[in-house]
Amino acid sequence: MYLPSEKPRNLKGLSQNISRTKHDQTRFPAHKPKNSHGSTIPLIVSEPQPHNALQISGLVHRYAAGQTPVIQIPELAVRTGQQLVLTGSSGSGKSTLLHLVAGLMDPAEGSVRIDGTDIHALHGHARDRFRGRAIGMVFQTHHLLHGFSAEENVMAALMFSDIPRGSHRARARTLLDTLGIPTPTQRVEKLSVGQQQRVAIARALACDPVLVLADEPTASLDPENADVALDLLQQACRSSGAALLCVTHDRRFIDRFDRAEHLNAPHEQLQAALEGA
Amino acid sequence: MSMSDWNIVTRSMRSRLFSSVVTVLSVAIAVGLVTLLVSMRNAGENSFKRGTGNVQMLISKEPGPLPSVLNSMFYAEAPGNPIAWAEFLELKRSYPFAWAVPTQLGDSYQDAPVMSTDASFFESFQPAQGVEWALVSGRHFGAPFEIVLGSDAASRLGLGLGDTVALEHGAPRTQGGHTHDEFSFEVVGILGATGTAHDRAMFTSLESSWILHAHDRRESIFGHGIVTTIDDLIDEDMKITAVYASLGERKAALVQVLSALRRDPDWTVANPSDTVGGLFSIVSNIDQVLLAMAIAVMLSSGVSILLALYNSMEQRRKQIAVIRVLGASRKRVFGMVLTESAIIGLLGGVVGIVLAIFCGMLVTSVLAQRVGIVVEPALPLDGYLFIVLASVALSCVAGAIPAVVAYRTSVVRALRPSM
To answer: At A259, phi and psi to the nearest 5?
Structure first.
């Protein structure tokens, strides 16, 4: 039901994760789903700390009230600057988890703290502003604003920050330059797919977020470009000190990250439960 | 320059340039139509009122005030029931007029009506309030068979000083009228434009007109080949058709004289300005229908804004979702869509007013050339401002539904990779 059958190899800090997983299973027995159909993640590890970039506690998400949870995460923490990859098959709720973390959806239970702030305790405008400033997002299909230049896409993120307006363009250009976009004034739809992904990375990092969420960032790239894009994303996060939570179904990249976790889809859990019975 | 909501809104409009332009145009046409209608209505009434000049009373024996004003001031048709000269003199003696100008209509030259009157017409009567008669060339008529041309009549008939014309009996375009070939009138003066119906008329002395009619009377008695002069006039020939009169500033006296004349069954008295106002209140029914149609056009342009923005919402859900992820609140996204509608309303309003002014100028020049009436289809500045504001407000109302769609856009659903 949990990680062991799919333990990633050569994963940094793996033994530590397992041991902490066991520890947490005993610490939080109430969160261990019994015959549950919901996705679960191994119970991890870090003690709740005030400066964790991300701290998930007792997170339960259902599509409708009374239904079986689709996501159930007793505890998950990502330290400041840490890079965590979350793997899982299609339908395991990876993207949903990112939406919950970004405050785009509300969980049934539990809390998600970004840099100590419970994002779901914020409402409306306050939550949107907080998301804009504290979280950067990178998507599989980039989701750039078409009709706008590369630098305007980056500046669009800065619009919602407290960073002085006068510095927006210079900041956007520096970021794009670092990420190897030599033509910041070119419209994004004229850029190659690889370049578009770089612009998306620059946009995610524009406001100096504490946490970058990446949803299948390499899925639309060929293997070579995927490597480069991931390198850039990880390097950019390291340089800015942002923590990175990357979800992917592609297990090839897991050894690049500080930590890797696996999210089981509900049907996998059911199968595991039946096999165990 | 950093990015702003304004950039996003304008860029979004530019990315859908065709749709944006068509929507702005549809609003502009509606606004233009409404503006033109409202301003033309005002202009028509003002122009008519202008034509009544400083006449406080138009006294005649016509069946009612409206035909009296239309015939004797706007040259619609030849007035019917004549007033004997002696009756006019008696009328003048009976009431304390500041001035009373005798006028007689009944002849014409081609399509120009001929007004017979005396020198007081140019001295006392102002064709429009505060506008004095002016001669462009020549002088006023003096001796019989001298004629003065209104500015429009002169230019349309191609007549100049020294030219001679023979008048026809009856109002212009009257069937069966005959030409008074025996008498030729010499053009002695050409008047400046006054912007009234008088510009298309010709002016001569009462005696000239009376002689023409005395000649007709005498021919029926003595046969062709006779000569008629001023000495042959008898009371029967000396008739007028209306009196332009004023009591000057004596408002109280005016009320008394008006009511006294109205009680007298021999006379028809009209206050020209009120009569024109009354005419426009009758016409205003039609006018309201036109206005209702213009408002319907306006509403349909509102619907076109709604549709244009609503349809664009489908394409823009992703953009809205991305902006939301970047930190924009729902209210801010709502505001952006509403701003877009307001811009459409503002542009449509301004372009519409420019269109209306341009069309108004066209209509003005056509009316001035064809009819000789100066119509100034202009609204006061706050009128234009009100129309633009109304256009913006209507557009915002139309944009509210798409804005709500934007407000309610599910970020999660919009960002889901399309299958």
So the answer is: -145, 155
Distance, C-alpha B138 to centroid of its chain:
30
Q: Which of chain A's residues have a Cβ under 8 Å away from the Cβ of B324?
A: 104, 128
From the number of C-beta atoms within 10 Å of its C-beta (0-12, 13-18, 19+), residue B360 rates as buried
> How buried is B300 (Cβ within 10 angstroms: 0-12 exposed, 13-18 middle, 19+ buried)?
exposed
For B153-186, what is each residue's pLDDT tens digit? Answer: 998 889 999 999 988 877 665 555 677 777 889 9
Give the residue among A138, A247, A243 at the shortest CA–CA distance from A197. A138
The answer to whether the Cβ–Cβ distance between B15 and A158 falls below 8 Å is no
Distances (CA, A) of B396 to B19, B312, B333: 17, 16, 14
Q: What's the whole-model pTM score?
A: 0.65
| H or E segment and range at residue B370 | helix B330-370
Nearest beta carbon to residue B11 from set A95, A147, A203: A147
Each of the 419 residues of chain B gets a pLDDT tens digit; together they read 677 888 888 888 888 888 889 889 988 988 888 888 777 777 667 777 777 888 999 999 998 898 899 889 888 888 888 999 999 999 999 999 999 999 999 888 988 999 999 999 999 999 888 888 999 999 999 888 999 999 889 988 899 999 999 888 776 655 556 777 778 899 999 999 887 889 889 999 999 999 988 888 888 888 877 888 888 888 888 999 999 999 888 888 888 888 888 888 889 999 888 888 887 777 767 777 877 887 888 888 888 888 888 888 877 888 889 999 999 999 999 999 999 999 999 999 999 999 988 988 888 777 766 655 666 667 788 888 999 999 999 999 988 988 998 898 888 888 876 54
Q: Which residues of B touch A (CB under 8 A)?
A: 1-5, 7-8, 11-12, 14-15, 318-319, 321-332, 411-412, 415-417
Nearest Cβ partner for B412 among A104, A137, A145: A104
Distance (Å, rounded) from C-alpha B390 to C-alpha B392?
5
Rounded distance, CA B374 to CA B47, Å?
A: 6
Q: Is A152 on the interface with B (CB under 8 A)?
A: yes
The per-residue pLDDT for range A183-210, each reduced to its tens digit, is 899 999 999 888 999 999 999 999 999 9
Answer whether A128 sits within 8 Å of B327, measured CB to CB: yes
Whole-number CA gyration radius for chain A: 19
Phi, psi of B129 (to 5 degrees): -50, 125
C-alpha distance from A144 to closest chain B C-alpha (Å):
8
Q: How far is Cα B385 from Cα B383, in angstroms, rounded to an integer?
A: 5
| H or E stretch covering A74 | strand A71-78
Separation between Cα atoms, residue A141 and residue A156, nearest integer Å:
18
Q: Which chain A residues are closer than 8 Å to B415 by Cβ?
A: 139, 143
Integer Cα distance of B144 and A193 in angstroms: 96
- Strand pairing category for B135-138 and A211-215: unpaired
Consecutive H or E run containing A118: strand A117-118
Nearest CA in chain A to B13: A147
Which residue in A94, A160, A168, A211 has the most chain B C-beta atoms within 10 A of its own C-beta, making it the best mutation to test that interface?
Answer: A160
Q: How far is A254 from chain B (nearest CA, A)?
A: 23
DSSP A142: -
Name the residue with tokens 């701290």: A55
Of A128, A147, A207, the CB nearest to B329: A128
- Give B349→chain A minimum CA distance, Å: 27
The reply to whether residue A144 touches residue B322, judged by beta carbons under 8 angstroms, is yes
Which chain B residues are within 8 Å of A125, Cβ to Cβ? Answer: 329, 331-332
